[in-house]
Automatic annotation (TrEMBL):
It comes from Kocuria aegyptia. Residues 30-266 form the Aminoglycoside phosphotransferase domain. It comes from the Bacteria. This is Aminoglycoside phosphotransferase domain-containing protein. Pfam families: APH (PF01636). Residues 342-361 have a biased composition (Basic and acidic residues). Residues 325-385 are annotated as: Disordered.
Length: 385
């Protein structure tokens, strides 16, 4: 499938009846799997077009299209952010490109988000018509995650999307660890570190929830210090809520993850349909850290499978850097055993839809070679059509 900006504009015109493109510009995305553009039509509306670069990426886009169509007005009213609206699709051989409504704003990189959370810009709130001080970015992110995790599991399972129990989540991570070990390119100290966490059963006692599944800074549409929308709904499933926290650990300022978790916990304590019906488990960030670190190993596995020696070398270097970093931190103490009757044991309510542990790997970690990282995007298209 051609992925020039002009071709993507033509895809938008073919996918949405009556759409007449007048300008087109790039849109940030995972460059390893997709090409995207923002199209301006003659009526002044903007549309986002995403074209896959592989059959696997096409399947992910089809899943996102299905998810967006399942977000009914009632579901959208539960969310403190906007979600794109599915508008159309265009087949090109075995691949499908999709057109969604565009949410005005731009993603920011993780450290820019951390700075915004630590030092809000007063100009962003000067015209907010409210006597209450606006929530900080960390509070917004905490409430955002709580709202996603409070969505009903039926939204996912009725759409025949995956649902995992806590033990299945652990088994999937064990499979990822095994594949990484088979490459014989991962430092032994990291393999042992990950194995300790995976063998600590107390870490894996949590209640599965609806999770975005691939959340990263590229998926947050920011405007004037506020999160206006969330995109990238290709991996929605029921599983470990820690998955949606992993990307926060890439920030140089550790206060970002801590502040978001604090706001998330506060939201969980509210009796509201926008909050989960229970507090976060005490090991949520432990699993999020494991997920973030294993993402590098997954990137190595993908590079090895593709025979991309330059990317293999880059992944090995990142893992070596991670090994040096964790060597400077004290190893976490093992958790105390939890009795069988403990109320901390999770409610395993999604076993009806188990999925194999060897599901296609998720995209490479943010910042890894060959992937996109969030950056300040243009508000609208730049190139006339």
């Amino acid at each position: 499938m051609s992925t020039s900006l002009e071709h993507l504009a033509a895809v938008a015109a073919a996918g949405v009846p009556g759409l007449a493109p007048v300008a087109v510009g790039p849109s940030p995305d995972d460059d390893a799997d997709f090409r995207s553009a923002v199209v301006l039509d003659a009526s002044g509306r903007r549309w986002r077009v995403r074209a896959p670069l592989s059959p696997e990426a096409s399947v992910r886009l089809e899943t996102e299209h299905l998810v967006l169509r399942s977000f009914t007005p009632a579901v959208r009213s539960r969310l403190p952010f906007l979600v794109p609206t599915a508008a159309g699709s265009v087949a090109h051989g075995d691949l499908h490109a999709f057109v969604h409504s565009h949410i005005e704003g731009a993603p920011l990189d993780i450290d820019a988000l951390a700075r915004m959370a630590a030092e809000p810009d007063p100009e962003h709130h000067r015209h907010v018509p409210s006597a209450e001080p606006p929530p900080t970015l960390a509070v917004q992110l905490g409430r955002l995650l709580a709202a996603i995790h409070a969505l009903p599991t039926a939204l996912v399972l009725d759409a025949d999307l995956p649902g995992y129990t806590a033990e299945q989540c652990r088994q999937r991570r064990l499979a990822e660890l095994s594949r990484a070990a088979d490459t014989r390119r991962v430092p032994t100290a990291l393999l042992r570190r990950w194995e300790r966490v995976l063998e600590d059963r107390a870490v894996w006692r949590f209640r599965p929830r609806v999770v975005h599944g691939d959340l990263q800074e590229d998926d947050l549409v920011i405007s004037r210090g506020r999160v206006r929308g969330v995109t990238g709904w290709t991996d929605l499933h029921v599983g470990d809520p820690a998955e949606d926290f992993a990307w926060l650990l890439a920030a140089r300022d550790a206060r970002l993850a801590e502040g978001v978790l604090e706001a998330y916990a506060a939201a969980c304590r509210r009796t509201s349909f926008q909050a989960p019906d229970g507090a976060p488990d005490p090991h949520l960030l432990d699993r999020a850290r494991l997920d973030a670190e294993l993402a590098l190993a997954q990137w190595l596995v993908r590079a090895v499978d593709r025979g991309a020696q330059d990317l293999v070398a880059d992944a090995e270097q990142m893992l070596a850097t991670l090994e040096q970093d964790v060597a400077r931190r004290p190893a976490p103490a093992p958790s105390a055993p939890v009795p069988e009757s403990s109320p901390e044991r999770p409610v395993q309510d999604v076993a009806e839809h188990p999925q194999p542990a060897d599901d296609p790997a998720r995209p490479a970690p943010a910042g890894a070679p060959g992937t996109s990282t969030a950056h300040t995007a243009q508000e609208g298209p730049q190139r006339p059509v």
